[in-house]
Prior knowledge:
Elements: E1 8-14, H1 21-36, E2 40-46, E3 60-64, E4 68-70, E5 76-78, H2 85-103, E6 107-111, H3 122-131, E7 135-140, H4 146-156, H5 158-165, E8 168-172, H6 188-191, E9 194-196, E10 220-222, H7 230-243, E11 251-253
Parallel strand pairs: 1-2, 1-6, 2-3, 6-7, 7-8, 8-9, 10-11
Antiparallel strand pairs: 4-5
Helix pairs in contact: 2-3
Amino acid sequence: MAKRLGQTRVLIYSHDSFGLGHLRRCRAIAQELARRNDEMSVLILSGSPIIGSFDFRNRVDFIRVPGVIKLHNGEYTSLNLNIDTEETIAMRSSIIEHTAAIFDPDLFLVDKEPLGLRGEVRGTLEILKARGTPIALGLRDVMDEPALLAPEWERKNVVPALEEFYDQIWVYGLPQVCDPLLGIDLPTSVRQKMVYTGYLRREATPAARPALPLLDRPYYLVTPGGGGDGERMVDWVIRAYENSTEIPYPSLIVLGP
């Protein structure tokens, strides 16, 4: 498919089942890429049910694939449709593949999950790799403990995928702060693909900046972030105060966005 001269396209995939972390990260990257490059268009593929609630600058758009939600037992189920998980994944995979084939990106950026949710991105990786499209995996600088991440990656057959499909692994952070893959048995060829990008710059509008109370004594700062499991952590903190009068300091709870 021929492109207009000077036009650059970036496709970003995020499995986004629940929470805001992945979505906000991908949006920040897309917005900055478009801001810095006047001839660039960025398309985000996401399963987030609230992606349509966000504003996007010119030349940034999104396609929402059918949503899924992670259950407490670690399994996934369809978020809104009354169909089984396998059908949902098949639909998502088909949409992702067809979008990539038509959009024909100059760069494919995958957020966190090298093969996507339940391997739904493998077909797209094969298509784009055959076309010679550069492919990058984006990782936050703090991942799960190696004792948890290593067996998960082994189960998902991630390392061979990193060797076969990915040209670079972008780590959103600094090596002096954290190596997200420390303790993971990786071949040298994969380690050499890691590039530390520094931290993503994010700015809030004046109206969005909260007026935080200033406590005149030490306190615990509780920040659950944008994940769906933050509610449980806040509940633990409140229960601790309900059941003990010996906690030495008060807590300030700052909720996710």
